[in-house]
Amino acid sequence: MEIKQVIIAHKARDPQSKQWAEQFATHFEKRGCQVLMGPSGPQDNPYPVFLASISRPIDLAIVLGGDGTALAAARHLAPEGIPILAANVGGHLGFLTESFEDVRDTEQVVERMFEDRYAMQQRMMIQAAVFEGNRTNLTPVGDRHLALNEMCIKPASPYRMPTSILEMEVDGEVVDQYQGDGLIVSTPTGSTCYNASANGPIMHPGMEAITVAPICPLSLSSRPIVLPSGSVVSVWPLADPEHETKLWTDGVLATSVRPGQRVDVRMANCQTRFIILREDYSFYQTLREKLQWAGARIRYINDHRN
């Protein structure tokens, strides 16, 4: 990889993450790279400034933090095709990131970037937009929103816990009406996150598919569904006189959705490109370690495997 310009984002207000970001910056600058470094967090978004200030394409992004920091990077950098090395420095679960042990030798990691000694994993994303009126109206009322994990349509109120009533269409055909806490429209990557908590299916991140899972539905017949990646999921808020329905992208508030509007969710035209340093990377090992997938209570020895 030819590396001339690098983004280094660290978890906002986390001294450890910032310290390691500075170490990475030092090694890249020694090799003649221009480094754009800044904090990333709920109140800090460095990416629009970085992308607007460059004179040539960004070659690489080093993202130090947890899963939230990696998700924010993916939403902003995936449309530019920028590969991301996300490392769990100052984070918690670290489901999407390389472990701290794999990046603590910062000089060696930088050397590996220049020598192309890593694997690249591409992950499907979804996009959403809000439209007025029926499905013949194809002009959105606002911006396109991207997500690596999921889009969530559910209400938010500072005074009570409102119930939402949502109608879902797939490719123009009504599938169901859901009454409950909301709907999750997830990617395979996001299937192990909020979707899994809502009893949705777990999908391998190498797949291209869309999952829709109701959140605490008031009906035993409301079930999660897995759809082809080319599907368009349309969600309409009903019976929402106080206009409390919101669209959330990867857990971040995106916009409000009023009655008479619909949210269309579909596969995005870009993918997140994650750099993998571990030679023994395994999605199933990640499930066992991060989600504590224990399986049966009684363990049996399989003498036939070898």
From TrEMBL:
The keyword Transcription regulation does not apply. NAD(+) binds at residues 67-68, 149-150, 160, 181, 192-197. This is NAD kinase. GO terms for cellular component: cytoplasm. Its EC number is 2.7.1.23. It catalyses: NAD(+) + ATP = ADP + NADP(+) + H(+). It comes from the Bacteria. GO terms for molecular function: ATP binding; metal ion binding; NAD binding; NAD+ kinase activity. Its cofactor is a divalent metal cation. It comes from Lyngbya aestuarii BL J. InterPro entries: ATP-NAD_kinase_N (IPR017438), ATP-NAD_kinase_PpnK-typ_C (IPR017437), NAD/diacylglycerol_kinase_sf (IPR016064), NADK (IPR002504). GO terms for biological process: NAD+ metabolic process; NADP+ biosynthetic process. It is found in: Cytoplasm. Belongs to the NAD kinase family. Pfam families: NAD_kinase, NAD_kinase_C. Keywords: ATP-binding, Cytoplasm, Kinase, NAD, NADP, Nucleotide-binding, Transferase. SUPFAM superfamilies: NAD kinase/diacylglycerol kinase-like (SSF111331). Involved in the regulation of the intracellular balance of NAD and NADP, and is a key enzyme in the biosynthesis of NADP. Catalyzes specifically the phosphorylation on 2'-hydroxyl of the adenosine moiety of NAD to yield NADP. The active site is at 67 (proton acceptor).
